[in-house]
């Protein structure tokens, strides 16, 4: 639990409720948390889902790992402590989007189960959708668009998930995507179908 350092503060209730915002948007809000190894397809799939939801007239925003580290988390590295703080920050931002009646899509390795669970705990029941993009280490190394696995194998990158740092698979994800064999389009359709099935695409 992160220490509350600020004092003399008070939570202020909003005049516009989350339910009213969802009604205005025409759909419910939720956090779609894509997790998996580097190069498993998280960002690509999340972008495809983002586009599909946009075309359906839904309100969305995508928080991507690299993009966030260029701004909100630019002062953080990749130690376990920094990874935990990065995920905490993303979780709080995603929660704001969801409470505004939007779909917040996040694409982060987020390798530690406890960190992902901590985000789930700050959201109302049913609003955190953990999506495990399942691709084997072999598949990810074959893709390796940034050449990161090669550098990690050579010892040029420390604390690299899957090589020198662990990845803890989700124990009970809402959705598992088979990124070893299926196309981006197929996987994005699976996510949208899940949202439809859950009744999240309507208010």
Topology:
Elements: H1 18-25, E1 30-35, H2 42-55, E2 60-64, H3 65-69, H4 80-99, E3 103-107, H5 113-122, E4 128-134, H6 137-143, H7 148-153, E5 175-178, H8 184-197
Parallel strand pairs: 1-3, 1-4, 2-3, 4-5
Helix pairs in contact: 2-8, 4-5
Protein described:
Helix content is 41%, strand content 13%. It has 203 residues and is of the alpha/beta class. It has one domain (22-95, 110-197): P-loop containing nucleotide triphosphate hydrolases (Rossmann fold, 3-Layer(aba) Sandwich). The chain has a five-stranded parallel β-sheet with strand order 2-3-1-4-5, sandwiched between helices. Helix 2 (42-55) crosses helix 8 (184-197) and helix 4 runs parallel beside helix 5. The mean pLDDT is 95.
Query: How many beta-strand elements?
Result: 5
What is the H level of CATH, i.e. the homologous superfamily? P-loop containing nucleotide triphosphate hydrolases
Strand residues, percent: 5-15%
Q: Briefly note the CATH topology name.
A: Rossmann fold
The span between the termini is 33 Å
Defining traits:
203 residues, alpha/beta, Rossmann fold, five-stranded parallel beta sheet
Q: What's this model, at a glance?
A:
The protein has 203 residues and is of the alpha/beta class.
């Amino acid at each position: 639990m992160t220490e509350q350092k600020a004092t003399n503060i008070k939570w202020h209730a909003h005049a516009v409720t989350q339910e009213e915002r969802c009604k205005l948007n025409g759909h419910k809000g939720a956090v779609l948390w894509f997790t998996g190894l580097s190069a498993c397809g998280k960002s690509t799939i999340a972008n495809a889902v983002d586009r599909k939801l946009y075309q359906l007239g839904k309100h969305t925003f995508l928080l991507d790992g690299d993009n966030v580290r260029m701004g909100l988390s630019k002062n953080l590295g990749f130690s376990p402590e920094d990874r935990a703080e990065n995920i905490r920050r993303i979780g709080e931002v995603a929660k704001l989007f969801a409470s505004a009646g939007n779909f917040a899509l996040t694409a982060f390795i987020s390798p530690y189960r406890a960190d992902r669970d901590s985000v789930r705990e700050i959201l109302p029941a049913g609003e955190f959708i953990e999506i495990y993009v399942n691709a084997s280490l072999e598949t990810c190394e074959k893709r390796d668009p940034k050449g990161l696995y090669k550098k990690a194998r050579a010892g040029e990158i420390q604390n690299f998930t899957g090589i020198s740092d662990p990845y803890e698979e989700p124990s009970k994800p809402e959705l598992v995507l088979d990124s070893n064999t299926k196309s981006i389009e197929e996987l994005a359709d699976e996510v949208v179908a899940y949202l439809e099935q859950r009744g999240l695409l309507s208010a």
